[in-house]
Request: fold
Amino acid sequence: MLDMGGSQAYDVKHTLQTHGEQTMASSTHEKRVGGAYLRELGGALLVYALLLVATIRFGRPMEPGALRTVVLLSPMLGFCLGLWAIARHLGRVDEYVRKYLLESFALGAALTAGLTFTYGFLETSGYPKLSMFAVWIVLCGATSLVLLVRSVLGRR
Amino acid sequence: MKNSLRELRAARGWSQADLAGKLDVSRQSVNAIETGRYDPSLTLAFTISRLFGLPVEAIFSPDQETA
Reply:
């Protein structure tokens, strides 16, 4: 009986190992690359958040002028660190993931261009003027949508 | 491009994550190569060839032989 159980346990383990595509185990490469990306992007977001809070607290009440403009722009330092983290991530991932991500970013950017261009015409026809911040939100949404759709289609 | 990566991996009892670890790539890359959705670069093809101890042409072959 014990031997039988052990054999069955081996079979299950062997099946999982042989058909690893049925499991979602990450490779050591993914863990290393993913960990570095999370650390770097997390650091960038922390810098962004701290500068944003400082800007709201101290920058907004300042007298108009060049110094106030510089202070109000300071959260972009964290944003640029985020872009640097993404660029470094693209340099670390393997060739297939790099191709996949760059294709998705390109499709997301194209979708954003189409949507914002369309809204430009709608503004002319009387729709409310939107802040340029909206472009960033649309870009994030469009890229996420592309990644989601490709992920669902890839599982078929 | 066709390949026999899945068969070679299964013969050694490796999961996709195991093979990905040995090649220093993601599991998604191994899956994409095995299912024919992605043709690896020459560099990765030679790494795969070295790992299995087989020539590249024994693992990868064109869908249709060209003249």
The radius of gyration of chain B is 11 Å.
